[in-house]
Write a structure and sequence with these properties.
3-stranded mixed β-sheet, 4 helices, 3-stranded parallel β-sheet
Length: 104
C-alpha cells in the first residue's frame, strides 16, 4: 500500500471504483507513512476523488503469516469517515468485474 500523492491527486479520469491494498505499512512519497493503514487509505481515497465504491485487495490467504489480512477494522473506521461503500471480492469476482468493464 503506497504511492505518490502528486500522482494520485492528478489522476484523469478519476475512478468510480477503487481497488486498494490494505496490507502492511503504507509508503507515501517513497517514505514510510507515519500512522495507521486506515488513515493512509482515507487520504488516498480523497486524493483520487472520493470514488463511491472501494474494493479491498491483498486480503486473500497468503503463504506466510499472517495468512490473512483482516480488513474489518479499516472498513469500520473508514465507513464512519467516508461516504463510500466498502467490500472485498474473491479473485473470480474481481476478474469478472474487470472483464465486464473492458467489454463495454
Amino acid at each position: 500500500m503506497g504511492g505518490y500523492q502528486g500522482i494520485f491527486e492528478h489522476l484523469e479520469p478519476q475512478p468510480d471504483v477503487a481497488t486498494l491494498a490494505i496490507a502492511g505499512r503504507a509508503n507515501l512519497n517513497g517514505r514510510p507513512f507515519d500512522g495507521f493503514a486506515a488513515d493512509y487509505a482515507e487520504k488516498l481515497v480523497k486524493w483520487i476523488g472520493m470514488p463511491p465504491k472501494i474494493i479491498w485487495c491483498l486480503h486473500d490467504e497468503g503463504a506466510l503469516n499472517p495468512k490473512f489480512i483482516d480488513t474489518k477494522a479499516a472498513t469500520r473506521v473508514l465507513t464512519r469517515r467516508l461516504p463510500a461503500k466498502f467490500g472485498t471480492w474473491g479473485i473470480i469476482k474481481f476478474i469478472k468485474f474487470l472483464e465486464s468493464r473492458h467489454s463495454n
